[in-house]
Design a protein that fits this description.
Helix content: 10-25%
Signal peptide: 1-20
Organism: Aliishimia ponticola
Protein name: VPLPA-CTERM sorting domain-containing protein
CATH class: Mainly Beta
Oligomer: single chain
Number of domains: 1
Largest sheet: 5 strands, antiparallel
Transmembrane segments: 182-201
CATH topology: Immunoglobulin-like
Strand order of the largest sheet: 4-7-2-1-10
Number of helices: 3
Order of helices and strands: HEEEEEEEHEEEH
Shape: globular
Radius of gyration: 23 Å
Keywords: Membrane, Signal, Transmembrane, Transmembrane helix
């Protein structure tokens, strides 16, 4: 009887683990030359929003010149029902260069995606460039690009883009079991203040 109960309990734990909700993102790189299209999807099964995303340049002999929906004169488009902003504002093409693209979102729900285009140039000559993969990865001894996503439950996931000779598009999936945020119990502040009061009384004695 005990053995049957133990087996049933183990099966229940396995089923719960198999059906655990996740947070995650899918990163897709496509396009030509030094102006790739980059798509970020909130691919988790948990109902947490994707609140921030960043992408580093990898080889710092290069830089991101701007990030827009499509070409320089088209503003970014947020996921449906949400907003997007860049830190700092990226897109003026006025000679300001960035080693990291950073985006903040509201309302970026699971199953939704965000797509943008960016321009990658050499630091020493903005008119000189190479294929985007040579800046982000496939770049010899230089560091590879790192993509990072922050979710509304506080979890942060990242991936260092691996070297690859595969065909475009380059697709990367990153996920983890979702961790529910731990709320502070309603009575915790009262307990803490009570303990502080007791400590004060002991000192006075």
């Amino acid at each position: 009887m005990l053995k049957m109960f133990a087996c049933a309990s183990a099966f229940g734990l396995m089923a719960a683990s198999a059906s655990a909700s996740t947070v995650g993102f899918t990163l897709t790189l496509d396009g030509n030359w030094n102006t790739p299209f980059i798509t970020v999807e909130n691919s988790g099964t948990a109902k947490y929003t994707l609140d921030a995303f960043s992408l580093s340049i990898g080889d710092t002999d290069y830089n991101f010149d701007w990030a827009r929906r499509k070409k320089i004169d088209t503003p970014l488009v947020a996921p449906p029902g949400g907003t997007v902003s860049t830190v700092p504002d990226i897109g003026d093409n006025a000679g300001t260069n960035f080693d990291v693209l950073e985006f903040s979102f509201t309302g970026f729900d699971a199953g939704e995606s965000f797509r943008f285009m960016t321009d990658i140039d050499l630091d020493r000559d903005s008119e000189a460039w190479a294929f985007f993969s040579e800046a982000l990865f496939n770049n010899g001894v230089a560091e590879n690009s790192v993509a990072t996503a922050l979710f509304s439950n506080g979890q942060e996931l990242s991936i260092t883009l691996p070297d690859t000779d595969g065909p475009r598009p380059y697709i990367y999936d990153v996920s983890a079991v979702a961790i529910a945020p731990v709320p502070l119990p309603a009575g915790a502040p009262l307990v803490l203040s009570g303990l502080a009061g007791l400590a004060l009384l002991r000192r006075k004695r």
